[in-house]
Amino acid sequence: MKYVLVTGGVVSGLGKGVTASSIGLLLKACGLRVTSIKIDPYLNTDAGTMSPFEHGEVFVLDDGGEVDLDLGNYERFLDIKLTRDNNITTGKIYQSVIDKERRGDYLGKTVQVVPHITDAIQEWIERVAIVPVDGKEGPADVCVIELGGTIGDIESMPFIEALGQFSYHVGPGNFCLIHVSLVPVLNVVGEQKTKPTQHSVRGLRGLGLTPNILACRSTKALDENVKGKLSQFCHVPAENIITLYDVQNIWHIPLLLRDQKAHEAILKGLNLMGVAREPNLKEWTIRTEVCDMLYNPVRIAMVGKYTGLSDAYLSVLKALLHASVACRRKLNVEWIAAGDLEDVTAKEAPDAHKDAWDHLKGADGILVPGGFGDRGVQGKILAAKYAREKNVPFLGICLGMQIAVIEFARSILGWQDANSTEFDPETKNPCVIFMPEGSKTHMGGTMRLGSRRTYFRLADCKSAKFINEANILTKKKPQRRPTSVYNTYAEGDQRLDMLWYGGMKFVDERHRHRYEVNPDMTSQLEDAGLSFVGKDETGRRMEIVELPDHPYFIGVQFHPEFKSRPGKPSPLFLGLIAAACGQLEAVLQNNDHVSSVVPKTKVTSNGQSMMKAHQNGNATKHSNGLVNGVYSNGNGVHF
User: Which phi and psi angles does 62 have, rounded to 5°?
Assistant: First the structure.
């Protein structure tokens, strides 16, 4: 096993996660099998109880692991499925050591940071590195390890000591250290300054680790004299100093690394030059170039609670981007703080209220993502109502599905107090209830987590059609239900086939929730026109809801964004974008590739094309910011 360690210096937020993901992709393009590990030095056992404002989104894995968002980058770039053990935290390491001490595994010895904690870290890395994550048998060739935080942080010290020992343990030719550092440009003099990186490398070497490669973040490519200076003072060959300058789309990073021969430096350090081939990034390059050239906009209103930090919805943004590129549209996200849509805001902050509604009404599609707590819930309900009444394409995820059900119950069934027991425990019409198996005393790891199976009960529902079509577009084989699962389930006096078209009978998606639609109220909701087209194996847990007579109104209890990949967009996000830009029927009828059905005419109005399309207003609004291929109105978000 070969190991690549990615560390960071000077400041946090330099993009170590994207760099580590890009290195993994580059090595994979060289024909190597790659796995990844993220080390987070915080004391939390996992990221499950951390605020999105503080740490960004919580990424959920197939096995139910609640992990750092960087593991989402690894999965998207490498198209792999990681486990909770691929995210190491100080809390996990100390807990495992303390458990061993309580069992008497240390035979009465004094348990110390060195050697017991450092040994536990090394053992964890070696154990996890050999677990296959790409669907093939046997261990990977290379494990990319990202050390979170910044060199010099007190909480990182045990990990740095362990990794120093680890590099000696695995020996030369099996360990390559890439240090990501900052080379700032001071506006006063306009000169690239190397001193911060010099100090960072000096600190790293003082802790027992010597970088093989420097990945320098800067606003522009490093001058040759700057590279020479860094090489002299950091003891790194000039050809091993890579510039990661600012780009408009992070998909460029693997290409930057390839163009600067980073793969050759890594392969030489790992003695793999005779094994690996030249990197094949043709498909990735084409996709990146397509993303850069997109012109015709599609505007999606993101109605959420955490709009002040885009990382809180990182996977949702990525899934929207994957789908918009597949539909050849430039994604423009209209950030809307859900609370700004509420009536109370109209009195307290009328300008913010008007601005929020203007953005909502100017969008081609509306997305309400997941969340917790009652802040902004009424605004999300109003957004769902607007989408339902105005025939605007709508996708509700997790809480977004639940509020869509609540809104329908209030507006169509007339249950004015319909609510979730999360927000009103005393409601007489609890449309959403706490799950029976949930815990009300412990927060961490007690939700319904991980990959769960959803069975379709209607063959002609939009969500099932799109999942089936997406599998055709990405050359994915239809899923066949194992014989151990019953072919039908009882609902009243009818026995309904779960799905009988195209071999697709179910879908596996990742979950993270404590509340669910009340199964005792679904019959009344369905009689009124709401259709629960996807359920779990018992038939009592609602997973997918649709409005049959709406162009595209879908709510899902699971989180489809976690399995979206570049080139393999999530079917439900693809459906939202396709509906928002008038391509829905064309995509459903096409069996070759999405791009072949995209009109080649220039779009200048709000999603208008030569095809018959849903239109939500006609105002044209230019975006004011581009980050990672996503344009944003900056409403509540500053880039």
Answer: -55, -40
